[in-house]
Write a structure and sequence with these properties.
Length: 338
Amino acid sequence: MRILVTGGTGYIGSHTVVELQQKGIEVIIVDNLSNSNITVVEAIESISGFRPEFEKLDLSDAQLTADFFKRHAEINSVIHFAASKAVGESVEKPLMYYHNNLVSLINVLKGMNENHIHNFVFSSSCTVYGQPEELPVTEKAPIQIAESPYGNTKQISEEIISDTIKASDLKGIALRYFNPIGAHSSAKIGELPLGIPNNLMPFITQTAIGKRECLSVFGDDYDTPDGTAIRDYIHVVDLAKAHVVAVERMINNKMKLNMEYFNLGTGKGSSVMEVINSFEKTTAEKLNYKIVGRRTGDILKVWADTSFANIELGWKAEKTLDEMTLSAWKWEQNLNKD
Ligand code: UD1
């Protein structure tokens, strides 16, 4: 038995590969390395003791993807991470995002159908809920009109998967991530943003290490206790473990429906200032930051109702915000140690 992890050299993908291997599951990674580095394969090997098979492949190429599946009859499940993920870039280059994220998904699903592979785990996002009316947000909350082409690709992808499942033997689990941060305890894998980070955690660590001058806190006039926006930050290793559980659920025929959706968060909201305070406390670093205006498209607050994942998957996020911020810092320090 072997699991295909697309995007397996990326941030969440690489942590998931390690967790799968540590459960004795064999992994094959496919990645086009557009937003990750081949050195991640060695880093994975040095953590788990197993070198995952790796193929450089662009899944938006229909022929190459079809050929890949024909060559790999041993694959019995797919965890699909490979996608572009920068919200701002997706607004500037919508066609690139629709092409990369949707065409590759379609090619993977076709390859699975043609080769009778039935288990599919999809990397989705809490962005599908927009600003929910009720918090914590459950999987039953209405899907909102997407704020960005990136967010729209996640919504459309879920629909493509659900329609394909209705018409075939495929089974699917969509995992809706809240805000993944942090890094592996070995500090050998972590988030590697290209250029200037858009997300909060890598911007914090890069500012503290001196790569960026100052963190801009986007707005302190929100209707929250300290005025800064609230998100449900989840440690990437907790998130990775949920993928192992999801794939086991499929393989062991434990699914209640052929398409299932799970929120992956901690169930606890933290404000931007709470993240900064946690970082300063755990690392003893003083962070240079200033308050600026709100960022267009940002929502006020969101955190997950995780009870469905807790009960059905038997999975619960365990790591605290302090563990997240400290591990992100150790990773940043390790990246810059030479
Ligand atoms: C964003 C995306 C989401 C995507 C996720 C991970 C939107 C609306 N959502 O989530 O779809 O899945 O990234 O890639 O874009 N912040 C600052 N200063 C910064 C950076 C961020 O104050 O330099 C604040 C933001 O305003 C926000 C919080 O930190 O309140 C988290 O921001 P970020 O890490 O970018 O994640 P989201 O915007 O929640």
